[in-house]
Amino acid sequence: MTYATIQSPFTLKFREMPKEELKDYFAWFQNISLQRLDELTNAVKQTPGFETWRADFTPASLDRLGEWFAAQVETRPRTGDEIQEIRNRSSIPIEIPEEELTNRTFSLAMDTGMYFSQVFLKNHDALQWDQRFGNKTDADYGQPVLVGFGPVPLNPVRLLITLAYGVVSKRKTGKSLRELYDIWAKMIRT
């Protein structure tokens, strides 16, 4: 399968980025979405057993996409520097997994998150994109989020990265993508 990983021209250190750079990131994210959806669709269809998958933006399309995504999740060993950086950022002692998602997995999570968000947008008029700048301690500060779920915005990329970690730990499966859609769909305010 050929798949070109996404190449962000930004650092993705959202809390450290100036507001104007965050706005540029938001525009870049929106502009690259169609290209990345094509890349994702091609990657899925090139995978044996998934040749007939259609990116038709229906909730049902998430069933097979979730299975495909879970099978693609890969890890690599964390470096000593990465482990130390995590320790330095944490104010309390935590167990740090020795493995990290691969760049390809992060890219697939971003692309799948973009598709996931489009399924919501095409099926629920009450939703729209937003970018939050209120508090730098907010986990979604400066990132593209969907709003219309009540007080909690949906960060589709963060959700898919979290799902990938869940697949690695065997707490989540390919069915989890559709389950997440169904959970969030119930929270939509009309």
Which key terms come to mind for this protein?
two-stranded antiparallel sheet; mainly alpha; 190 residues; 6 helices; globular
Description of the structure:
- Helix content is 49%, strand content 7%.
- The chain is mainly α.
- A two-stranded antiparallel sheet has the order 1-2. The chain has a two-stranded antiparallel sheet with strand order 3-4.
- α2 runs antiparallel to α4 (103-123).
- The longest helix is centred in the N-terminal third of the chain and has 27 residues, at 19-45.
- The N and C termini lie far apart (41 Å).
The rounded Rg comes to 17 Å
* Terminus-to-terminus distance: 41 Å
Which percent bin holds the helix content? 40-55%
How many DSSP helices?
6
Mean pLDDT: 95
Q: What pattern of helices and strands is seen along the backbone?
A: HHEHEHEEHH
- Class by alpha and beta content: mainly alpha
Shape: globular
The fraction of residues assigned to DSSP E strands is 5-15%
How does the SSE layout of this entry go?
Layout: H1 19-45, H2 61-72, E1 75-77, H3 80-89, E2 99-101, H4 103-123, E3 128-131, E4 144-147, H5 156-168, H6 176-185
Antiparallel strand pairs: 1-2, 3-4
Helix pairs in contact: 1-4, 2-4, 2-6, 4-5
